[in-house]
Amino acid sequence: xxxxxxxxxxxxxxxxxxxxxxxxxxxxxxxxxxxxxxxxxxxxxxxxxxxxxxxxxxxxxxxxxxxxxxxxxxxxxxxxxxxxxxxxxxxxxxxxxxxxxxxxxxxxxxxxxxxxxxxxxxxxxxxxxxxxxxxxxxxxxxxxxxxxxxxxxxxxxxxxxxxxxxxxxxxxxxxxxxxxxxxxxxxxxxxxxxxxxxxxxxxxxxxxxxxxxxxxxxxxxxxxxxxxxxxxxxxxxxxxxxxxxxxxxxxxxxxxxxxxxxxx
Length: 264
Prior knowledge:
Layout: E1 3-9, E2 12-18, E3 25-29, H1 40-48, E4 52-56, H2 71-84, E5 91-95, H3 97-108, E6 115-118, H4 135-153, H5 158-169, H6 172-177, E7 183-187, H7 202-222, E8 226-230, H8 237-240, H9 242-256
Helix pairs in contact: 1-9
């Protein structure tokens, strides 16, 4: 276990864990409903590779305080942890919900060596997001996917539903195009996630995945700081293949992040 401390962002207590090390600072942001412990195995690999990983609990998660969710407020939380732990130009790596935060960070912090969105692609919210379906089929797919999401959300805390509404309202591809530092978008095999849907919705989910791939390819073409790679995992590459993800991060940072190796 590393050193666990609390910083205050505005009036919200935010807890983070410094795993040690004296190399390039890396700030790790977990996904929705998870905690900083999600990163334990990956943080150990980074530490062994000469980095200094720090993992934080996002507001409303883990040991951090509960508070209304907005992207601006969460970015302030991340900045408060970076300052409170003395992180110098940290690499920011986020998974799922945290990956979306990392992508937004890339648009506000040109000094950041690298931001990573790890499989933070969200869910379909409108008919135009189902590639290959005609207008009628896309509208039906959107209605059915929305109804399924609402059904899955019944009984969940309002705080979690608020986060989901913020995710649905976020234009991730606009965030990618606004990147001012190197931004790496890492995708697992999104179609492997189809198992959570009833069979009748699998074609709609696959059409959405195809749309995400198409839009991501366009964002990469149009925005020099943005690059995209895929890993042969599901939604949790940092847990399913932490070694492969660590190699990817280190290699990408050396090639595009303005540093040839972690500081020691």
